[in-house]
Amino acid sequence: MKQTDLSRWNTLLILGGAATMLSLAMGMRQSFGLLQPHMIRDIGITAADFSLAIAIQNIVWGATQPFMGIFADRHGARPVALFGVVVYAIGLGFAVTATSAWSVTLGMGLCVGLALSCTASNIAMSVTAKTVSPAKRSMAMGSVSALGSLGLTLASPLAQHLISTSGWQTALIGFLGLASVMLPAAWMASRADKIKVPAPLGAAQTVTQAIQEALGHKGYVVLAIAFFVCGLQLVFITTHLPTYLDICGIDPSVGSTALALVGLFNVMGSYLFGWLGGLYSKRFLLGGIYVLRSIFIAAYFVVPPTPTSTLVFAAAMGTLWLGVVPLVSGLVIHLFGLRYMATLSGVAFLSHQVGSFIGAWGGGLIYSRLGNYDLAWQGAVAIGLAAGLFQMTMNIQPSARILAERNPAAPA
């Protein structure tokens, strides 16, 4: 089947499934920070223990993402996505019955990390890119990323309500209900497996050759290194903002409302940057996101927080949250084509998840050692400013292979 053979209804089903799967996978994962103060008190773990579990989640996600991308490129998204939903549910089951740090790490760390590599942005963007024409690709990826943000606006208030009324275990049971919705969504999204990607004009490329080509491209290396800061900043905020508000004496409902606002404004931001990415330089837009995030983090943490400043901060960060996804995916396709998009996006994503590991564990470690988050947010700001400027220098010339395919009549 070709893209042109899809009816409008079938296209909407695939994109809707991808957005729903992404939305719930990310929404639950980004709400785990709301559980931290309660799990610390009830189980007897420390902030560093919880942070390490989330850090392991991120590093497992990053380490397995390239392999899941390779499998999806070879065998399709369906087996990957369905496997991820099942593992996500198993991880939540371990977390519900957790009585020690190791069980939290096994469930929320190892299992959820593996599940995210199968159900989150990499697979969703690969499905989306296959489903729409190149002219509509940036806008479509921005739209799916935007709709994928709605999960946080659902999962965060749901979790806080259930925590307040019935306890954190009930909140995780509620998440199991959301995970069950991911199953049909993953099935619908993976109907994109039937779409055939046009074969390259030259000799067929193996996955090893594709990775070697990418790692030899200076622009791709810059993209991957700068992607590190995205993970560091976002996971630091989702993991530690609720605890930061708790130690500042602010009502827990402010934390859940802030996370919901992140998801809500992310809808507008992701759509906006998907649209802008089709009109303007993706590398400058991406670098600008990193710089603006750093400025907002500094402005928020430099003075004692209030409920109002927290909600304004959440709205500002939400606008810049997942707008990076269509930009990074679009740059990968621009440089190397569509054939190994899931694989190459996954390799770049490993850098993102190393940043996530440091943002989660490092933030908890700094707080446990120093009793405050000052050094953590200052580091996030400094690294973010440097990465944003670095990103703007990226070489965006496609690989020699792609240039030859797009301009077969041009001289070598």
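(the above was protein one; protein two follows)
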Amino acid sequence: MDFFETIMFPFKWLVSAIMVVFHDGLSAIGMPAASGWTWTLSIIGLVLVIRAALIPVFVKQIKAQRGMQLLQPDLKKLQDKYKGKTDQLSRQAMAQEQMALYKKHGTNPFSACLPMLIQMPFFFALFQVLSGITAAATSGKGIGAMSAEQVEQFDKSTIFGAPLSASLLHGSTAGGEVAVWVLSIVMILAMTASQFITQKQIMAKNMSEEALASPFMRQQKMMLYILPIVFGVGGINFPIGVLIYWTTTNLWTMGQQFFVIRRMPTPGSPAAKALADRRAAKGLPALPLLGGKKADAEAAEASAAAAVEAKTQRVQPQRKNRKRK
């Protein structure tokens, strides 16, 4: 067993164990154990468990994204300050001030990628499990928490005539090549489209004009088109079960983002204006800015300081009228 296999072993076991739990539960309520739909729902159940466990990480991601958007004006000032300065001391000073800004706003550029990075080991584990199904079934072995009998059931299970362990690139040894091609292409299109729509709605509705004009967001716009292409091209090698997993998790993300954009939009964004208009139409008061506890505390401290300054401000002496002689 090589180093990568050693690292992936616990993830493979956990992924297969969650699928087995859902499969056994669905079989217990009357669904056929060897049905492709039973295994498909087990894969969807795997998505629900992983994404539910990632909700706290998603909340941190939202806060980090808002922090990144709020500090864009400060970042632009910093970039203008060191514009044209390429010496080592200036670069170090700029990096230190930039890190100080990130610390002040409680964010960093990599926070937005955190949920995807956490999901990747489970994604690769599922890919390895499903890719090894046929070989394990042929040799009569189990994979992870899946018994040899369950591996054989999965290998023979199909939806719409396409085996779940087949892929567009490698096809299927159990027949149904046309079904594999059609279903794989449909799932790849659904996977890439859901990912594109999710990122597009964030940029179109949940970002202020200042954030959209920043260099960081110009890079994000490039990724908006690059990532779907990467996953689309890579999808030809994904088993249908993996395509079901990734499409389902993308749909979860899309729904999650829709809820956040509608109910808790970023201040200054078109979504925030739309929320204010909806509340005004219903006669409800405007919601306070969602800056988090730290921002609220800073605002309260600044307000208190202003009040104290107003009270302690020195009163200028008034000129008294002189008595006439």
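Reviewer note on protein two: The first helix runs from residue 3 to 28.
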